[in-house]
Amino acid sequence: MNNKNLIINKSNMRKIIIYTLFLLSSILIYSQEVLTNNTIIELYNLGFDNQIIKSKINSSQTDFDTSLEVLKDLKDKGIPSDVIAAMIDKTTVTTDSGIFFYIDSSELKEIEPSVFSGTRTNALGAAFSYGIAPAKIKSYINNASSANKINRTNQIFIFQFGNTQKADLGDVNWWFKSATSPNEFVLTTLKQKKNKNQRQLVVGKVTGITASSQMGVDTKDAIPFTVEEIGKGRYKVTPKAKLEPGEYCFFYQGTIPLGGFNNQSVFDFSIE
Fold first, then answer.
1. Which residues, listed in sequence order, are joined to residue 247 by a DSSP beta bridge?
2. Would you say the C-alpha torsion 172, 232, 71, 105 has a positive or negative sign?
3. Nearest-CA neighbor of 115 among 270, 272, 267?
4. Residue 61 in 3-state DSSP?
5. Where among 32, 61, 91 does a domain terminate?
6. Are residues 208 and 126 in contact, defined by beta-carbon separation less than 8 angstroms?
7. Rounded CA gap, 61 and 10, in Å?
8. What number of other Cβ atoms are within 10 A of residue 45's Cβ?
9. φ, ψ dihedrals at 13, nearest 5°
10. d(CA 92, CA 88)
11. 152-204: pLDDT as tens digits
12. Does residue 151 lie within any of the structural domains?
């Protein structure tokens, strides 16, 4: 037999190996109903593209461990940051509810809401216009800048709603537990009052002539954002345009119960 017939071209051998690995990896993917950290490591080591791995994460049941030590181990194993971020997005946040932002490409931090320190109405301006101009209702937050600092390059927010939430009207943030979607919130700017070490938000207006009132942030002051549901009561919220440096907040504008209850706080943050 001619020895040439026993020689396999290196390029053909490479194709056979890649094809075999593809078959094995396909069996692995479809046989696993729940993706785990080890699944992701195996897929990455088999050479699958980041986008393919992320698509598989988004379309599958998952049981990821995204604790800090494990995240460090994943990074040491060479798992790309965008894949780790996709794993975090599919991991249930340990708290019942809240709004979170990325402090880096893979770690989330909760936005601690700030409580309004008071509310005022500029009745004097309305009086000078004989009631024609509406009197603005302004709520104030202590401190001219938020403690939640967000980098301008990473403006993605994660809303987590509890699966079995119950609004306790004795809770300062009862209104968040009443919500079920980011669409019940408005993203808007907070006006700095540095001389008073405060930030201001117009939360309504009263018209003197008609004695009518309107509560909530005016639509012209609302900043558009997109909402993507990512499962388990979680939503990814992204401003449609990059936010410039300044003070901002998410303000709840959903239905509130009767009896004098109102929104007492906001999820505020600074873009640096």
1. 270
2. negative
3. 267
4. strand
5. 91
6. yes
7. 39
8. 13
9. -60, -40
10. 8
11. 888 999 998 875 444 444 455 566 767 788 999 999 999 998 888 999 998 87
12. yes
The CA-based dihedral angle spanning residues 252, 241, 53, 72, taken in that order and rounded to the nearest 10 degrees: -70
Number of domains in the chain: 2
Whether the pLDDT of residue 244 is over 80: the answer is: yes
Say if residues 117 and 142 touch (Cβ distance below 8 Å). Answer: yes
Which amino acid, residue 259? G
Judge if 78 and 123 occupy the same domain: no
**Residue 205 amino acid letter:** K
How far from chain centre, in Å, is Cα 117? 26
CA atoms of 26 and 40, how far apart (whole Å) = 13
Report the length, in residues, of the chain: 272
Lowest-pLDDT choice from 84-93, 193-202, 228-237: 84-93
Do the Cβ atoms of 91 and 100 come closer than 8 Å?
Answer: no
C-alpha to C-alpha distance for 246 and 146, rounded to whole angstroms: 10
Identity of the residue numbered 156: I
Share of the chain above pLDDT 70, in %: 68
Instruction: Please give the residue range of the domain that contains residue 211.
Output: 108-271
- C-alpha gyration radius of the chain: 26
Task: Name every residue whose Cβ is closer than 8 Å to that of residue 96 and which is 6 or more positions away in sequence.
Answer: 160, 162, 165, 177
Which stretches does DSSP call E strand in 65-165? Answer: 98-102, 108-110, 114-115, 118-121, 135-142, 149-150, 157-160
Range 3-32 burial, b when 16+ CB lie within 10 A, else e: eeeeeeeeeeeeeeeeeeeeeebeeebeee
17 and 56 belong to one structural domain: yes
